[in-house]
Amino acid sequence: METERTATLEELIQEHISVVKGYRRQLHEFPELSFQEYKTSQFIFDEMSALDHVEVTRPTKTSVLVKITGGKPGLKIGLRADIDALPIQEERPELTFSSKVDGIMHACGHDGHTAMLMTATKILSEQADQLEGEIYSIFQHAEESHPGGAREMVATGLFDDFDFIYGHHLFSNIETGLIDIKSGACTGNSDRYDVTIYGKGGHAATPHETIDPIIIGAQIIEKFQTIISRKVDPLASGIISNTVFQAGNSNAKNIIPETVLLGGSVRSFEPNVRDLIETEMERVIKGTCDSYGADYTFNFRRGYASVINNEETTATVQEIAETAFPDQIISLPPTMGGEDFSAFSNLVPSTYVFIGAKNEEFGFDFPHHHPKFGIDENSLLTGIKLFVNIAVQYSRLTLT
Known about the structure:
There is one protein chain. By secondary structure, this protein is α/β, with parallel strands linked by helices. The protein is about 35% helix and about 25% strand. Helix 4 (about 110-125) packs across helix 10 (about 380-400). The two termini are about 15 Å apart.
């Protein structure tokens, strides 16, 4: 009986190839930025409301939640997809469905994520009587912009009693067909910092009469790297990337400026490393500024926490994936990229997976957030199949 049902689901998924591509291309043509996904969420709401056996609600202004109640008792499971785009001008004019919105594009695959979950929800709604428990499709807004849409959705309290939440991300540096699954840390803590150094400006010919903030800033940047090499455990991981150094006036090259602005990104996995880096950064800034008699302000903004895959839920996901995709499962080291799915994974047992979408032959190998980013649409079927199989099998495998 189980084999027959699985075959039926496989056939249904294959029958929906044109559906998922249509959804994805529609979303790609009309991208919207974080917290501004009004037309995107309305499109999702309208399409999902047309299905049978579903309840569709709006937890926030630009998110959508679809509930499917199964015909048998089981667990409360969430399937999550993010829906927002990025402020990037697309540079793929050869696409017949390239972005029609100036300066905005889906440069991270969220159009694919949304299309996969919409299609999976459609398939699952048609099989509602065979499902166990309650299946929720979570169309989450604002993944790309702090503090993140996941945190806003979690704050509603709607997800407090979920048994499991699953999500996945199309990845352009993994070959199409491969699926990356791992327990523990999956993504990194993603933080940002700003430092303003207040010195004393003056003429370049009399530097002894100044407190040169450029010299101070350069020393601070150099010392930051000693935090990683001499303060962080060599078996742990941490990154401090200074990406901003603003000072002076290009039309006044004989003037030492009053101030310097530094800024950048900090990445880590472990909470204690995150705390250590923040503390040590301020120690370096204060010590360097004090030695020259300068003042400073330091702002360390904590972004998304590390996504931690639950060991038990991930083992179940891996079992399901290995059955559906034999010889296609890999386990790569975690990425330092940030992902606000952590708001869900910090709340309930969760698993987050990466799906290969790379195809060099067709130019789908540019990194995420690149103006030529693209995905191999064959990867969309992988995502649908994972969503559907997890919805169908997770309760049964967990409760057996």
